[in-house]
Amino acid sequence: MTQQIDCFIAFTSHSETQDVINRLRKSKQVQCIFVISNEKQNLTGAELILADHIHSTDCINKIAEATTNQYAFLTLQNTKLGFGQFPLERLLQVANACNSSMCYSDYAEVKGGVRSNHPVIDYKLGSLRDDFNFGPVQLYRNDVLKAFLKEKHPDWKQSGYYALRLQASRMGDICRVPEFLVSMTETDIRKSGEKQFDYVSANAREKQIEMEQACTEHLKAIGGFLQHPFKSVHFEGEFPVEATVVIPVRNRIKTIQDAVDSVLKQKTEFPFNLIVVDNHSTDGTTELLSKYEDERLILVVPESNSLGIGGCWNEAVFHPSCGKFAVQLDSDDLYYDESTLQQVVDKFYEEQCAMVIGSYQMCNFQLEEIPPGLIDHKEWTADNGPNNALRINGLGAPRAFYTPVLRDIRIPNTSYGEDYAVGLAISRTYKIGRIYNPIYRCRRWEENSDASLDIAKENTHNAYKDSLRTFELKARIKRNNENH
User: Fold this and answer.
1) Residues forming a β-bridge with 402
2) d(CA 25, CA 469)
3) What whole-number distance in Å separates Cα of residue 87 and Cα of residue 414?
4) Contact between residue 459 and residue 119 where contact means Cβ atoms under 8 Å apart
5) Bond before 398 cis per omega within 30 degrees
6) Number of Cβ atoms within 10 Å of the Cβ of 155
């Protein structure tokens, strides 16, 4: 194997970039090396590609034009890169053996001077998140880049690379090599919970619009794009109350009273109740809840000891006291004011929808607002929300459901992603109503389940949601095929 690879590397510093060039030159598989920078650089052994935005359509087009060999090796992160033993050779070996459209690998990361292994996850049909972690290096087949060039994508500033890897997924298998072939210096050392809402920051709006456009193009290309009209919802049947708030809880003695009180203070034009599913708490939560004398509060302790949050929701939804609409409240959180429940139910009737999703304010334990403040998920549009839902990592809160639809779909018995699974399934068929003003307070504190995840747990969560997207995408493709 000789001279089958052209290499494209992002400029970091002069010394770091020159070191990468020198290391790449030692491989017999490398023919040409290109450095991508927004200004001229004086480097030895590489050609320069000028690009203002490294992930832009313009930059990817220039990479595609410059690629003359069978494969292109891309490292487009502005971070210090290190090499293990024969990383290019190993990627090339797998790519040739599998005829994969793109290969990537696990890597080691250096964070705060400490080196640790960072495994990534396998790519699936539903791995449509634009923040999917491929590690710092990828090997693309030549024809993928040339196909991207022919597509003549819009002049995206930030989603060109995203569109490229979607292109690769349409042209073959994207293969992960579960070996730590390279290393990178991680400059973002925040906890997982602190990164979670980057995409809703004010300066991310333009990027989100571009990513949605690229994802929509991809869904149309693979037959997974949803076109409605939605199935009509007729609010029929007899229910004990109009609305039921559902709170699953386990060991939340510090927060459950605030949550319950915020429900019982609601002012509505209709009767409502509250079902708290206490999943065998051991910290005094059960005793605290038992002290309430308000008949609207129904305390349920499941017989099973194997229920996750989704399983607890099913206990409430199938309870004979559950109302026409089931409305979510987490045991850490509370409603924004006394009008939340009324706003949610009004939205169901206003839009004849099967699900309503609100907006929430981020706050600390003392209920003081913290960045990024209001999370309103305005990336959800009436025209394209159900399609864009396959790209983003969550749909918002609070979530409310027309109970018969929820009973029909049922909720996965997990404690992560169960709400996302239901939201995707509902959006395939029914309209989802949105409330963009704050009606919910989301409390962030050290005991939140996603406040600080290790790599293994984060990978498990991401892989599960990618599986949910895959299930849903296959269902949409199947439905579209049946309708043609």
Assistant:
1) 325
2) 41
3) 38
4) yes
5) yes
6) 10
Q: Which of 91, 81, 108 is nearest to 27 (CA)?
A: 91
Q: What tokens does 379 get?
A: 């990336």
Matching residue, tokens 């929509």: 216
CA distance 359 to 251: 26
- Cα dihedral 253, 256, 261, 267 in deg (nearest 10): 180
Both ends of the chain: CA-CA distance in Å? 47
- Find tokens 């309870």 and name the residue: 319
Rg, C-alpha atoms of the chain: 25
Neighbour-count burial of 339, counting CB atoms closer than 10 A to its CB (0-12 exposed, 13-18 middle, 19+ buried): middle
Strands 102-111 and 138-141: antiparallel
Given pLDDT bands bounded at 50, 70 and 90, which one contains residue 112?
Answer: confident
Two tokens at 399? 């979530």
Position 167 pLDDT exceeds 50? yes
How far is C-alpha 447 from the geometric centre of its chain's CA atoms? 21
**At 214, phi and psi to the nearest 5?**
-65, -40
Copy the structure tokens of residue 296: 């609207």
Q: Residue 100 and residue 169: Cα distance in Å, rounded?
A: 9
Query: What are the structure tokens assigned to 438, written together?
Result: 């704050």
Question: What span, in angstroms and rounded, lies between the C-alpha atoms of 406 and 400?
Answer: 10
Length of the chain: 484
pLDDT score for 81: 94
Answer for the pair 442, 372: CB distance below 8 angstroms, yes or no: no
Which phi and psi (to 5°) does residue 80 adopt? -65, 130
Give me the phi and psi of 342, to 5 degrees please: -65, -40
Strands 399-402 and 325-328: antiparallel
Classify 327 as helix, strand or coil: strand
224-260 pLDDT per residue, tens: 999 888 888 999 899 999 999 999 999 999 999 999 9
Which of these, 77, 214, 103, lies nearest to 148 by C-alpha position? Answer: 214
CA distance 179 to 481: 38
| Residue carrying the six token digits 């033993």 | 85
